[in-house]
């Protein structure tokens, strides 16, 4: 397959115009820089793996949002109690959560939900996208954390991102 000099003329034009608008300087050096970026950025973007969102049923999204808001409230109280309490009671750890989600947009939504909930942070996605590393401020039962993430968040997201 023959590679074009400009894989996307609209993208090149957009990069060129935006560079000049952001620079607020139309000197020859900035115009040359805009031309280089207008040529280079679409070439780099064309090499990225694109995966489009496949949406399924949005029926449960309201329930998921309500559950998330409730969990954020409860987690804030729990984290405040843990942080203000004795530090020897904290059992911080990393836990690998196996994923049933395969759509990168669904995985991104799951990582956002986990990170929005105080006390947990999404740390890494495995190369094969089958496991998500989650850091938990305090847990005595890693399996309970995995089960909670899978039932409360991943299962509803599987309906949205099949």
Describe the structure concisely for a colleague:
The chain contains five helices and three strands. The protein is mainly α and 162 residues long.
Properties at a glance:
Alpha-Beta Plaits; mainly alpha; 56% helix; 162 residues; 3-stranded antiparallel sheet; 5 helices; 3 strands; 2 domains
Q: Please give the largest β-sheet.
A: 3 strands, antiparallel
- Our count of domains comes out at 2
CATH architecture of the largest domain: 2-Layer Sandwich
Mean pLDDT: 89
| Annotation field: number of helices | 5
CATH class of the largest domain, named: Alpha Beta
Order of helices and strands: HHHEHEEH
Which value, in Å, is the CA radius of gyration?
22 Å
Number of strands: 3
Which runs of at least 5 residues are low in confidence (pLDDT < 50)? none
Give the CA-based shape: elongated
How far apart the termini lie comes to 32 Å
The spatial strand order of the largest sheet comes to 1-3-2
Provide the CATH topology of the largest domain. Answer: Alpha-Beta Plaits
Find the structural class using helix and strand composition: mainly alpha
Q: What share of the residues lie within helices?
A: 55-70%
Fraction in beta strands: 5-15%
